[in-house]
Amino acid sequence: MDRVPGYCSPVTAEENGAETRDGPSVEDGLVDAFGDLAALPVEVGERRPTCLRCRRPQKVCLCPFLPPQPLEVSTCLYVVQHPAEESRVLRTVPLLAACLPQGKCNVIVGRRFNEEKHPELAAVCRDSRTLILYPGPKSQNLEELVQYQEVGSVKHNVIIIDGTWSQAKNMFLKNSLFHLPKQVQLNRTLSSQYVIRTQPSNICLSTLECAAVALSILEQNDDIQEVLLRPLKALCSFQLQHGAQIHHSKEHLLKNGMYDKPMPKNKRKIKRMEKLVTDHNICPR
Questions:
Q1: Residues 169-228: pLDDT tens digits?
Q2: Closest CA to 214 of 283, 148, 140
Q3: What does residue 159 show for φ and ψ, rounded to 5 degrees?
Q4: Residue ranges of region Disordered (predicted)?
């Protein structure tokens, strides 16, 4: 019999070779004690009422910073979200979805995707109009791609991987479906406004920021970027006013001698951190 740490497995008097006695045994007492504990009422903590639009607690609702009406866009976003992102309190994807019409921001949660279990996503990946936003040597600059297109002439689908940088890299490499669409990256110089979460480098952006820039390029409307970033700025401002600290990027900490965590022993990780300091053009994946 397995033993629970801190407790001995119950052994009867006969098994010990001792005489049995009348009356309640130690085992009976333990059973009664656990029975009494089980009978105690369980206190269920009340969840704070949540705003149905921005998905934030009602007391810190960000709807005043959202557009009065969803933005009219021809582009359709598919946010492929790592399961760990669902449990994060300060997520940006719900704010993104609240700014766009229904069906224009589709969130699909998972790590592995295939044609059998995700036929809709597979069809999107095979569509010639679909782009996947992921930086790398094979990526084309998004602005160059749409430079000679008329507004609305091509209704693009854009796949964005939502997760930490290591999660996004793992999901991209291990899902062959994500290698079917044309791979694109953003070339605009923009510092992240998402200052309450650590980014690897100064030019790395949150999911909402990536979507904001991509949509403004594809729709050829810079106002879209400003409107989408407004709730993110409000979220960060509120958190900073209530005790949150500004999170500098790992690149900033390394360059300024402020990185206080132990340096990795793995050579590949050391090389990656050195690249953060010397390479100014690529978000490490």
A1: 999 999 999 999 999 999 866 767 665 555 555 557 889 999 999 999 999 999 999 999
A2: 140
A3: -95, 130
A4: 1-24
Residue 69's Cβ-count burial label (10 Å; 0-12, 13-18, 19+) is exposed
Q: What is the DSSP string of 149-218?
A: PPTTSS--EEEEEES-HHHHHHHHHH-GGGGSSEEEE-------S-TTS--SSTT---HHHHHHHHHHHH
Calculate the dihedral angle through the C-alpha atoms of 185, 156, 218, 195, rounding to the nearest 10 degrees: -50
157 touches 130 (CB < 8 A): yes
Q: What percent of the chain has pLDDT over 90?
A: 41
| DSSP-assigned beta bridge partners for residue 96 | none
Whether the CB-CB separation of 251 and 284 falls below 8 Å is answered with no
Q: Are 152 and 74 contacting, i.e. CB atoms less than 8 angstroms apart?
A: yes
Residues 154-166 have pLDDT tens digits of 899 999 999 988 8
User: Given 3-state DSSP classes, what are the helix, strand and coil percentages for the chain, each rounded to the nearest 5?
Assistant: 40, 10, 50
**Residue predicted with more confidence, 131 or 235:** 131
Instruction: Please count the other Cβ atoms lying within 10 Å of the Cβ belonging to residue 148.
Output: 7
Distance CA(162)–CA(171), nearest Å, equals: 10
CA 132 – CA 204 distance, rounded (Å): 16
Distances (CA, A) of 204 to 91, 178, 201, 247, 281: 16, 21, 6, 13, 10
* Token pair belonging to 1: 């019999």
Closest CA to 235 of 276, 195, 189: 195
